[in-house]
Amino acid sequence: MKSKDDLIWIKINVVTVGLTDDLFIGFCYVVPEGSSRFIRNEENTFDWLIDYIAKIHLNTDSKCNIMLCGGFNSRTATIADSVPYDAVIDEIGFLDDYIADSFIYRSSQDKGANTNGQLFIDICRQTGLIVLNGRVGNDLTIGKCTLVGSRGNSRIDYVLASEDIFKCVLVLQ
């Protein structure tokens, strides 16, 4: 798969990592809003991410593990990165094989949000990727800021993972 300037993917064979499916790791940089590189109304890195993840799922019949990490310049506070279970689905009998997302609280010291943050959350909701920041390891229940500067502190860098990877990380804690 061809990578873009702000997005690089690598594939690790299933045998190498000991998982049931191949692991695709994406490294990403999203241009901050207001930057000289930021161009409004142009296909952006978030659009590319959705396209790449969709292609990975298509080419693997959704038998894959995905990790995505990098500087997303996205402030998300504690906005839910999953779609909450909708009781209406039970009432209308929509999709017998519907699997509701699990809500897992995510801590964050950064209480702010921005436009990139909403686009970032949309990617999580559309792809099922889970934000690891504020949920695992030494950051569990903390959600440390990743940018500390003279203009304040914020969390703009993230690690995302597919559900199987997330479960593996939880087991290792």
Provide a brief overview of the structure.
The chain is of the alpha+beta class and about 170 residues long.
Describe this structure in words.
This protein is of the alpha+beta class and 173 residues long. It has one domain. 27% of the residues lie in helices and 20% in strands. It has 5 helices and 7 strands; from the N terminus they run E-H-E-H-E-H-H-E-E-E-E-H. The chain has helices at residues 14-17, 45-59, 88-92, 115-127, 163-172; strands at residues 7-12, 22-29, 64-71, 130-131, 147-149, 152-154, 157-161. The strands form 2 sheets. The protein has a 5-stranded mixed beta sheet with strand order 1-2-3-7-4. The longest helix is centred in the first third of the chain and has 15 residues, at 45-59. It is globular, with a radius of gyration of 17 Å. The chain starts with 6 loop residues before the first strand and ends with a helix. 26% of the residues are buried.
Shape: globular
> How do the strands line up in the largest sheet?
1-2-3-7-4
Strand content: 15-25%
Number of helices: 5
Order of helices and strands: EHEHEHHEEEEH
Structural class: alpha+beta
Query: Could you estimate the helical fraction of the residues in percent?
Result: 25-40%
Count the strands?
Answer: 7
Give a quick account of the main beta sheet: strands, pairing sense, barrel closure.
Answer: 5 strands, mixed
The N- and C-terminal alpha carbons lie at a distance of 33 Å
Q: How many domain units?
A: 1
- Global Rg: 17 Å
- pLDDT < 50 runs, ≥5 residues: none
Q: Please tell me the overall pLDDT.
A: 85
